[in-house]
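As the next step, I wrote out a protein sequence along with its fold in token form, included below for the reader:
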Amino acid sequence: MEVENQQQRWEGYLDWRGRPALRGRHGGMVAASFVLGVEILENLAFLSNASNLVRYLGDYMHFSPSKSANNVTNFMGTAFLLALLGGFLSDAFFTTYNIYLISAVIEFLGLVVLTIQARSPSLKPPECKKETAETPCEVLSGGKAGMLFIGLYLVALGVGGIKGSLPAHGAEQLDETTTQGRKQRSTFFNYFVFCLSSGALIAVTLVVWVEDNKGWEWGFGIATISIFASIPVFLAGSRTYRNKIPCGSPLTTILKVLIGATLNRSPSNAVASMATSPSYPTQHSKGAEEEESGKAVPVPTQTPTNSLGFLNIAVINKPVHKALECTVQQVEEVKIVMKIFPIFACTIMLNCCLAQLSTFSVQQAATMNTKLGSLKVPPASLPIFPVIFMMALAPIYDHFIIPFSRKVTKTEMGISHLQRIGIGLVFSIVAMAVAALVEVKRKRVASNSGLIDSTGQLPITFFWIAFQYLFLGSADLFTLAGLMEFFFTEAPTGMRSLATSLSWASLAMGYYLSSVIVSIVNSFLGTLNHRPWLSGSNLNHYHLERFYWLMCVLTGLNFLHYLFWASRYKYRSTGSAK
């Protein structure tokens, strides 16, 4: 009877009450579906303000265009970088279940602060009708600025925790030991991006319209309600979830192996260290299955692989201290992390391009004719183009492209993770080239119309901006889903939440890199020409087309860098072969 109960349990998982998770009762696509529903509400709450924040900071807080853009990129970069904290806590000390609930409450509190400030004129700078050199608009400062940034970074902290826990929580519901489970996991990540886009669609249409026409207090209010509503939706799936038991700090393992490889000197008999570490159970190993069936199985002695051989010193040589004693499995897990890190680094430049969607592209559209018939489209609603394209392409990719590619390649994956990421990188190169050409056209129209010194609307339709949005949206679809599944699939079991968070950390690094490049362009290149490329209050005086061409060149060089590492990467997981 005891053996039968053991076979019904998910090894290494508990239910929401801390009891062993059971097969047939916990996990599966039903449990993962609750996560998909939550993602719609969560991303609606985040993007409803982030997509239009650059205009809020400029029009109501009176920051300059470049300072508004940098504040937005810093805010979004921090939010995505904090996903690493959420992933680390999920793996080490708490469950993804608990981290999501804590993070949702923190984001809710941040949005309450922003709503109160947006509603109270006394907490904002005085309204500025027309700015001149003699009477510049008063910029937000002091305690009012403190309130703004406290609210923003509480939201960033909450968003980071959610991004670091929610995708991994959904993927953990699916059984990786079966072909069907691995295919379901691939489907989950595709539809996670679909649901992320669904929330974004509502955010950049309905909520942005409300912000521009009814007031920002209503926009922040909708976001507050949305994140609050996500909590009961998430809790509704509690009875179906299987929650991975935290395995202790993965950073401790990484540091121990790296320090051991550096300090351990004299060779020793390392047979005792060759046993598999009990801290990282391998669910689908043959030995585990036979142990569950009641058969005694001798534990085989492991030997380290030859790749990244310098790390083998940590297990082959005698440790200088007992705390630095490592197992072969720990060394191999650190090797996996080091192998996926170059892939992570190669996606940062793509996300630097994506940062332009919520900064300069919105400001470009604000100078153009945004009328669609009798309807005036808010500039911050322009991301609707890539969002709709992503929503349309995600089901097509999952139900048609992937099955077809599986038949052609006769592999379980069809299109490998790295191939998918590479396609996204190519789209980002094209997007930056298109953006540069569109900006050349926009400035030519401004010059020919005699409006180069005006901040008024130009006689050119905003549909020209849609082209760069479409290519960047395609890049995002291919890269984000492929990157999340790649990190989750390849990472050791005890590091999966942290590894999946690297997808968001790449976004963060991209936003920060965007700010750095803007600063370098303004200070270094601007000094050479005695005029910064990206400064001032009039976008028509910017050399934005040069900035986009620079981004195109950098992205092309990054793609060559990616090809170098991707062509040498060897998949370790079942079904992941190229």
Notes: The chain is about 65% helix and 5% strand. The longest strand covers residues 9-14.
